[in-house]
Specification:
This protein is α+β, with helices and mostly antiparallel strands and about 240 residues long. The chain has a domain of about 70 residues. The chain has ten helices and eight strands. A two-stranded antiparallel ribbon has the order 1-4. The chain has a two-stranded antiparallel ribbon with strand order 2-3. It has a two-stranded antiparallel ribbon with strand order 5-6. Strand 5 and strand 6 form a beta hairpin. Helix 5 runs antiparallel to helix 6 and helix 8 crosses helix 10.
Length: about 240
């Protein structure tokens, strides 16, 4: 049912893309806010989601997202982290969808030519949302840089898998065709979370690494890579 889509709780997504779960909820499911008009009367508003997620919000008891949602969140995180207002991010997404289709920011075309979309949004009445001309001209090159896409592997223009440690360290991969898109060891297919859990149960030391390696019949160095990855996720949470 979920093969090829990926399956992540908001808590898992928060750790993987290093964004608070609260922010993910606001971005993907919308939020209410209040303004006060000139007569000091309060007005209630609803900010719509930035996009429609791969799974509807009411599909499961708890909200979950797909692989493409996960990768798109990484790009939104970069924009927001560089001080780009959410209004500008929203307009950029809307414009990019018209050009590249659904989930536009992680298409191969966007990572090479997205500057055109971004600048068109900047010159469409939203320039004042950024601090000054110099920042407006440079912000895109600071955000959409090769390192942001270096771990993404494409099939044509569509992102198919993500190596979260980058192209030079391909120990771990997120592939929606494997284990519902959870992080797994490359060429082994064992989820890093399973290895980490067994490592902790066995004592969380060097001896535990050796035990887990024997249990799963894989090299100790691969168990160690999985443990280090999971520890980094928990530190970033």
């Amino acid at each position: 049912m979920y093969s090829g889509t990926g399956f992540y709780s908001l808590a898992e997504a928060a750790r993987l893309v290093r964004v608070p779960a609260k922010s993910i909820t606001r971005w993907l499911y919308g939020y209410n806010y209040t303004t006060t008009d000139k007569n000091r009367e309060k007005q209630q508003h609803f900010a719509a989601p930035l996009w429609k997620t791969e799974y509807a919000a009411d599909t499961f008891a708890d909200k979950v997202i797909g692989f493409r949602d996960l990768l798109e969140l990484r790009i939104v995180r970069e924009f927001v982290g560089h001080g780009v207002p959410l209004l500008v991010v929203r307009r950029c997404l809307e414009t990019a969808r018209q050009v590249y289709g659904d989930y536009p920011m992680t298409t191969h075309k966007f990572c090479t030519d997205g500057k055109t979309v971004f600048m068109s949004v900047m010159h469409d009445g939203l320039e004042s949302e950024l601090i000054d001309l110099r920042k407006r001209q440079l912000v895109f090159s600071h955000i959409i840089k090769p390192s942001l896409y270096s771990g993404i592997e494409y099939d044509g223009d569509t992102a198919r898998r993500w190596y979260p440690e980058g192209k030079n360290r391909r120990n771990i991969v997120l592939d929606p065709q494997q284990q519902f898109g959870k992080p797994v060891l490359v060429d082994v297919g064992v989820p890093t979370e399973a290895l980490f859990s067994n490592y902790k149960v066995e004592g969380g030391d060097q001896a535990a690494l050796n035990i887990v390696a024997r249990i799963f019949d894989i090299p100790v160095r691969k168990v160690q890579a999985a443990v280090q990855f999971e520890e980094q996720l928990r530190l970033a949470a």
